[in-house]
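Cast an eye over this sequence plus tokens and explain the fold to me:
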Amino acid sequence: MLSLRYALVLFVAYFLLFCLYYRFYFRPRLYLLLLSEPAYMDHYVDRLPHICDRPDERLGMVEFMLAKRKQFVRCLRHFVFAATAAYAALLILGATA
């Protein structure tokens, strides 16, 4: 039988893990999610100092930033899946013990 205390402690740990992830990993990289909007991408790339001198590198920079965004979203999905799977597994193990 699953105790309420165990379930609450596990949920608080799960919540704190997400808070730490948001604070130290997600929040500083939030701009990567905004890069899917063309206006934000243009604004971001235009603010880079070396793009003003070499406009021919603009397309390469856009591709690089979109690849960086894709990797960030992939890591985000992996983290959410792994944390939720671990939480569910620990709940199931606590229920059987």
